[in-house]
Amino acid sequence: MSDRATPAEQVKELSRGTVDFLTPEELEKKIGKGKPLNVKAGFDPTAPDLHLGHTVVLQKMRRFQQFGHHIQFLIGDFTGRIGDPTGKNETRPPLSDEQINANAETYKAQVFKILDPEKTEVMFNAAWFSKMPVADFIKLASKYTVARMLERDDFEKRYKSGTPISIHEFLYPLAQGYDSVAMKADVELGGSDQKFNLLVGRGLQKEYGQESQVVMTMPLLVGLDGQKKMSKSLGNYIGITEPPKEMFGKTLSISDATMWTWYELLSDLSTADLVRKKEEVTAGRLHPKQAKVDLAKEIVARFHGAAAARAAAEEFERVAQGGAPDSMPEFRIAAGTKVLDGLVAAKLVGSKGEARRLIEQGGLSVDDAKVSDIAFVLAPGAHVVRAGKHKFARLVVG
Amino acid sequence: MSDRATPAEQVKELSRGTVDFLTPEELEKKIGKGKPLNVKAGFDPTAPDLHLGHTVVLQKMRRFQQFGHHIQFLIGDFTGRIGDPTGKNETRPPLSDEQINANAETYKAQVFKILDPEKTEVMFNAAWFSKMPVADFIKLASKYTVARMLERDDFEKRYKSGTPISIHEFLYPLAQGYDSVAMKADVELGGSDQKFNLLVGRGLQKEYGQESQVVMTMPLLVGLDGQKKMSKSLGNYIGITEPPKEMFGKTLSISDATMWTWYELLSDLSTADLVRKKEEVTAGRLHPKQAKVDLAKEIVARFHGAAAARAAAEEFERVAQGGAPDSMPEFRIAAGTKVLDGLVAAKLVGSKGEARRLIEQGGLSVDDAKVSDIAFVLAPGAHVVRAGKHKFARLVVG
Fold first, then answer.
1. What pLDDT sits at residue A87?
2. Which residues of chain B register pLDDT less than 50?
3. ipTM
4. pLDDT at B87
């Protein structure tokens, strides 16, 4: 996809996967003016440790860059310096300037795996808020009504259920909206949970005499389980700093349905190429497993480079075809220990009973030779022990 | 009343006429510490043109001064400089520094008729708000909840009826409350419509680690009609810059019931003396008219001095006993004009018919001689014409 694409072609491609898009017509008109657009996305200034779920919005930003647009990567350091003023949220103490700068550097190191640094401007909203007189902030607050703020889903629920809402919580969406004014954003991207705040920005720009930004929200990425949103706490995630092998293997583990969602939200493939790929799988010309390998390689290549992606794919293939992986966990066991106990010690099985069943069913091999004797004792030295198809350990005896 | 009064005596005297008083116990404790208290009252920075209704709070401030306390006369110039940011209220454009300073001088000229300048500190809240970082203002906003703000009567009504409330309107009570923090106010006085805002200050001081201010609110003064609150627009007021004669006469026109309310809210008489006065009237030892004269003299003396008050009382008495006033409106009429037409020209009557009835009923006198001929023509020269008991004009013929 080149930046020679017409405004209509760009809009069509950019619309992929969006939840909210207000409005395609406005975006086409803005692109049609022929200047690179300011595409804003805001991020917390807390320590970033991104997983693939966070990269959905980054991928959309990348797509804008591929069309020649200008990314405004906004770090919300102003609110970060305030912390949680109610003091109720102890996990959100105010951040020092040093912490915020360090976090910004970590962000850059991570997001520039996806974004082109040449077309990315990293901005900090303390730049305008730290200099703003309180009087101007009050004027900002006059641009929005209490009733409209209470229409935000979470506020409405809390108000109706009697859960306190501090007044400053009404000010944050306004501050976020004012960022768009200060940045002269043409487009703002965010997660679908950010829709309300993005619309506030759209409204405020109008109040301040600017053309309203286009608002595009992206869905939450479904995790490895194919059911719930990807999150650290659910354990169904792929961290973007995970090693190539892990990234590759985890991606291969997702269902076919999940694969197509990931393709839509994470792949650089153009929509036309993606449609073609789906058709090939449907027609039986492409095995879904191969499509999954292609996706996994693309993801690994993004964070570790093409060579690492190829290596991860080759090793995965070797293991899948019965070969042992390059590296595996290693355990020391005393001379004379039965392999049955060794399997338990290496955590290749959960219990002695499971180890026994594995051996009896022919699932154990030692140094590529099947072992079916449950009393088998390993000779001194190092041995590659394989339990079932995919589990390996190196047992060092003596 | 001297400043030797005990804390309990002060509290009793100061409680006179209050609508809300939170709490007498706290006030007694604060006074008991032996230091002059900071007594805050806030005023709009708009052009002041005070009537007696405004002086109810000023009288309470004066009483505090008489007990040796320190008055903080706060002019809310910060919000005045913002104006009405919604632009909906065209009568409230932002005020310039020059306007605010000029208004402050006018205020001083008026309020120092009541307050002792030596014990009054004139303060401006832009002093703290113009230097406050927005972050601190957001922290301030975190100290109060949306639900509590919506409990304020007018907000509740507007929210329920769907009348828009701009978010900045929630910020003004917080700003007013923060004034008390910045000023370390021990007491805040205001009209009873200010109760909510004064309580916000009470709560905020606690949040900022200060002892909460005592809150005292005063009722609205009933106007000359004895029915509605005194106000410019209803025309039932006495402006504090009105001439002595007007002030005196208008005060004499109020009902006995209204008189006692005015005594309670406007007079310097101690509560003990006031109780005694009421008893004398009840017992028939003092004519209510005399009590009203005493009140009118006190009010005139406050704004124009004791000599002017005596003169106004004497003139009023002379007119009441049939004498002509020192000054009266003067009208020129052509030679040969009937007195009947002269009465209409001088607006002593509303119509020719009324003039005719007046003359027929014996209500007209010219130069102290009764005239009962409706065809009477005034001789050339100046004549004092009296219609009924109290209406006079000077008619100059030819």
1. 64
2. 1-2
3. 0.75
4. 63
pLDDT at residue number B320: 75
Partners of residue B155 in chain A, C-beta under 8 Å: 146
Which residue matches tokens 């014990």?
A: B119
Report the alpha-carbon distance of residue A61 to residue A69 in Å, rounded.
9
Under DSSP, is residue A22 helix (H, G, I), strand (E, B) or coil?
A: strand
* B134–A135 CB contact, under 8 Å: no
Residues 6+ apart with CB under 8 A from B35: none
HEC secondary structure over A302-361: HHHCHHHHHHHHHHHHHHHCCCCCCCCCEEEECCCCEHHHHHHHCCCCCCHHHHHHHHHC
- Where b means 16+ CB within 10 Å and e means fewer, A176-196 reads bbbbbbebebbbbbbbeebbb
Q: What is d(CA B165, CA B168) in angstroms, rounded to the nearest whole number?
A: 8
pTM here? 0.78
- Beta carbons of A168 and B86 less than 8 Å apart: no
Radius of gyration of chain A (CA): 26
- ∠ CA B330-B334-B335, nearest 5°, is 115
Residues 6+ apart with CB under 8 A from A136: none
Distance from the A136 Cα atom to the nearest Cα atom in chain B, whole angstroms: 8
Closest CA to B266 of B312, B311, B300, B232: B300
Work out how many CB contacts closer than 8 A connect A with B: 113
Task: Give yes or no for residue A107 having a pLDDT over 60.
Answer: yes
H-helix or E-strand containing A79?
helix A77-82
Q: Residue A94 in contact with residue A45, Cβ under 8 Å?
A: no
The dihedrals phi and psi of A200, each to the nearest 5 degrees, come to -60, -45
pLDDT above 70 covers what percent of chain A?
95
pLDDT value, residue A285 = 87
Residue B326 tokens read as 């020192």
- Nearest Cα of chain A lies from the Cα of B123 at a distance, in angstroms, of 18
Residue-level pLDDT at B1: 44
Cβ contacts of A322 within 8 Å, gap of 6 or more? none
Nearest CA to B299 among B340, B266, B348?
Answer: B266
CA-nearest residue to B134 within chain A is A134
Beta strands in B116-202 (DSSP E): 120-124, 187-191
Give the whole-angstrom CA distance, residue B203 versus residue B282: 45
The shortest C-alpha distance from A128 to chain B (Å) reads: 10
Per-residue CA distances from A252 to A212, A260, A270, A292, B238 (Å) = 42, 12, 21, 6, 88
Q: Which of B186, B154, B187 is nearest to B173 (CA)?
A: B154
Please answer yes or no on whether A130 and B129 come within 8 Å at the CB atom: no
